[in-house]
Amino acid sequence: MAASPSVQPPGSPSFRAAERHLAVDGLANARDLGGIPLRSGGTTPRGVFFRSENLDQATSAGWEQLRAAGIRTVVDLRQPGERARDTQPRPAWLTTVNVDLDGLENTAFWADYWDNGLVGTALYYLPHLATMPERSGAALAALATAPPGGVLFHCVAGRDRTGQIALLLLSIVGAEPEAIVDDYLETVRRAEQRAVASGRADDEAASEALCRSLGTSTEAAFRAALAGLHLPALLAAAGLTDLELAALRGWRQHPAG
User: Fold this and answer.
1) Hey, which end of the chain has fewer CB within 10 Å, N or C?
2) What is the pLDDT of residue 254?
3) CA–CA separation, 166 vs 164, rounded Å?
4) What separation in angstroms does the CA of 168 have from each of 61, 109, 137, 164, 227?
5) Global pTM?
6) Tens digit of pLDDT for each residue in 80-114?
7) How does pLDDT run across 137-182, given as a tens digit for each residue?
8) Are 73 and 95 in contact (CB under 8 A)?
9) Each residue of 47-56: pLDDT tens digit?
10) Three-class SS of the chain
């Protein structure tokens, strides 16, 4: 059976991504994926799946806030070289599962997306899913099979790799398409806060300009990826088991507690 949805009415503030923000010291882009409206009615339960940017930015107080939110497992979507640059150990109470979503060894694929900046847009989502579906499948399987407790997934900025997995996860559970788009755009809206928290440049304007030069926009590129996603074919190619799919469709079979 699917997890019991919340019963808040349409129009509830919890439907807005900003209302799902998770206050974590050191982070600017952490949020609960609960409270998202479903096409079948109700909303996704809270306290089950979370998304964020690189957790290495979290302070000691931030780690305690993550623990208090019920998070017990992290699925890290970064490349090994990115993980090697972390400056602090992760707490003993946390289970970390590393899934390199990119697959840079597939140089033929990345030649068309890396150096030209398209890796920083949703324009690469569908090609990546078509070429390396098993990468996203491994990330989704890690979300489905994590030990009890909340599960958070992240990359560096929590924008595109995290955005791709959030798109798939929310599509699998049957979230309203506009809510999926709004969840992605919340990260875009938090560009300035993300830049300050990470000490990195705010590159949203450059990303938008690149999309515009190709006849689209940041938002339109994501909408196109969502509209073009053929979920049954992707799931068949991704290698997920029936039990893993059931866990994702049921939001891990339990509401927030």
Assistant:
1) N
2) 55
3) 5
4) 31, 21, 10, 6, 12
5) 0.92
6) 999 999 999 999 999 999 999 999 999 999 999 99
7) 999 999 999 999 999 999 999 999 999 999 999 999 999 999 999 9
8) yes
9) 999 999 999 9
10) CCCCCECCCCCCHHHCHHHHECCCCCCCCCEECCCCEECCCCECCCCCEEEECCHHHCCHHHHHHHHHCCEEEEEECCCHHHHCCCCCCCCCCCEEEECCCCCCCCHHHHCCCCCCCHHHCHHHHHHHHHHCHHHHHHHHHHHHHCCCCEEEEECCCCCCHHHHHHHHHHHHHCECHHHHHHHHHHHHHCHHHHHHHHCCCCCHHHHHHHHHHCCCCHHHHHHHHHHHCCHHHHHHHHCCCHHHHHHHHCHHHCCCC
What's the full length of the chain, in residues?
Answer: 257
Q: What is the mean pLDDT of residues 100-129?
A: 96
Place of tokens 């990119």: 102
